[in-house]
Specification:
256 residues; mainly alpha; single chain; disordered N terminus
Length: 256
């Protein structure tokens, strides 16, 4: 009997403390909107940074493969092969490395550690976009594409938990859903058209697609870094309040 009950007993012992905390909120959309209204200084720059981050991500992922075809005369079949191999390598590495760094930052900075991934990922992300301006050969171009895919995915993967940790447990699904909605409306809804408009009307040259991608993604990546940095201190204060309300305590960092 003791052997059969051991796994159940141990799993309950390891249950996170947050699941034992009850909240008065219903967890519907009105509660989420109320949270937003109470802290516009956090959510306005944070969601603006999210939108810009998705614009950067979709801008390079949708259009950069076309650069291989137009500038380097790579066939569509070869582009699929090269980009597929790149993503098979980069995506798992970004998830693994991002998770390790994000968890370390959370232990080091319990209130805003996950959002600090912005400072880890975005400086090299911005540098990669700047390097994309140079007319490298195939290998150099693929390395630059690998760099901005890696750093972009590393940060984006970490932001799911970053957003969810701002609200009580029963509202986390709605927060992440809103995060994905805003990101995809901005990224998929605007980015393909914006890059195309730059190519057709600003540069008026189909062979300047590389410059169009940089013209869109470089300023938006810098903007995302600035807006995310503005949200850093309000984020820490919001996390501290939430932990205090739920009865959890986090030591070792001043929310400012």
């Amino acid at each position: 009997r003791d052997l059969h009950s051991f796994p159940t007993r141990r799993s309950s012992d390891l249950e996170p403390q947050r699941r034992d905390v009850m909240h008065d909120t219903r967890g519907d959309i009105r509660d989420l909107l109320r949270v937003f209204a109470q802290n516009p200084g956090l959510f306005a720059p944070l969601f603006a940074a999210v939108a810009l981050n998705f614009i950067c991500g979709y801008g390079q992922s949708i259009w950069a493969p076309v650069v291989l075809m137009r500038d380097l005369n790579v066939s569509p079949a070869q582009v699929g092969y090269y980009v597929g191999i790149m993503m098979l390598v980069v995506s798992p590495c970004a998830a693994l490395v991002g998770g390790v760094i994000s968890d370390w930052l959370l232990r080091r900075y319990p209130l805003d550690g996950r959002l600090r991934m912005l400072w880890v990922c975005y400086p090299p992300y911005i540098l990669a976009f700047a390097l994309f301006l140079f007319d490298f050969e195939l290998l150099g171009t693929m390395l630059v594409m690998s760099a901005f895919n890696f750093f972009g995915q590393t940060f984006t993967n970490a932001t799911y938990n970053t957003m969810g940790e701002l609200v009580p447990n029963q509202m986390r699904g709605q927060m992440v859903a809103l995060y994905v909605l805003v990101g995809n409306v901005a990224g998929l809804g605007l980015t393909p058209t914006i890059v195309a408009l730059f190519t057709d009307y600003v540069f008026a040259d189909e062979m300047m697609l590389r410059e169009s991608i940089v013209a869109v993604c470089l300023p938006t990546s810098i903007g995302a870094l600035i807006l995310g940095s503005i949200a850093m201190r309000p984020y820490a204060r919001a996390r501290a309040r939430l932990l205090e309300q739920t009865g959890l305590r986090t030591a070792g960092q001043d929310p400012g």
